[in-house]
Write a structure and sequence with these properties.
single chain, about 50 residues, mainly alpha
Length: about 50
């Protein structure tokens, strides 16, 4: 149980960092697409979808 909670906290922290970079990035559209692609599995893990 503790490991599962730690796993979801780490995933949420990584998602927060990626979202922060996504919001800050304004110049290059390619980076926005890459950040969006990285966010998809993190969001799915937080929603407990595999």
């Amino acid at each position: 149980m503790i490991i599962m909670i730690a796993y979801y906290l780490i995933t949420a922290a990584l998602l927060g960092l990626v979202v922060w970079n996504f919001v800050r990035e304004k110049a290059r559209r390619q980076d926005l697409v890459l950040y969006a692609i990285v966010m998809i599995p993190l969001i799915l893990r937080l929603l407990r979808w595999k």
